[in-house]
Amino acid sequence: MKILVIEDEKKVANFIKRGLEEEKFEVDTANDGETGLQMAIEGSYCLVILDVMLPKRDGMSVVRELRSRKMMVPVLMLTAKDSLDDIVAGLNSGSDDYLTKPFAFAELLARVRALLRRTELERGAEIRFADLRLDPVTHKVWRKDKEIDLTAKEYALLEFFMRNPNQVLTRTTIAENVWDYVFDSFTNIIDVYVNYLRKKVDRDADKKLIHTARGLGYILKEE
Ligand code: CA
What we know:
This protein is α/β, with parallel strands linked by helices.
């Protein structure tokens, strides 16, 4: 299992590399965004750990470029900021999870393991609900025969809905399963993402599939 760490602060990069190597991962490092992007494109990594503030090319632009090339390697972003806007922007650019600096190694390791586990689960058969179809291998989604273009996080959210249809999913359940953790402002992020998803999945359809369960959360169902 090879992990790429793109981080310009040598101390942080070495701290992550040493820790992950002790856990039997193979680790490559890059000191700037341009080099990191090239390595991510050319190497076969099971995960990329990506700092946001980088010389030459910032982390958000690196992950955006990877996603535009349809490279779905999971990306864990490291950010110095903890504001809702920055988190949403980071997740929107296509990263799968983020960690705020400074962090304990145990926390990083837990996130890494969760992302790798999720990637494993994603390999599998096509999932269908009503006229929605989702391919966990290619991450493609269709409503009727029309392909829907989703960001990595929107995809993860829709997959969670489709794996758990016809049941109310609370914001806490969604946060724990799609983001792996919960904090106070998280309910806002979930509402934001459900709205993104509705625009893409339901707006042009006769039948709405993503419903609000007032005061509880959300439910994927046919009326
Ligand atoms: Ca940095």
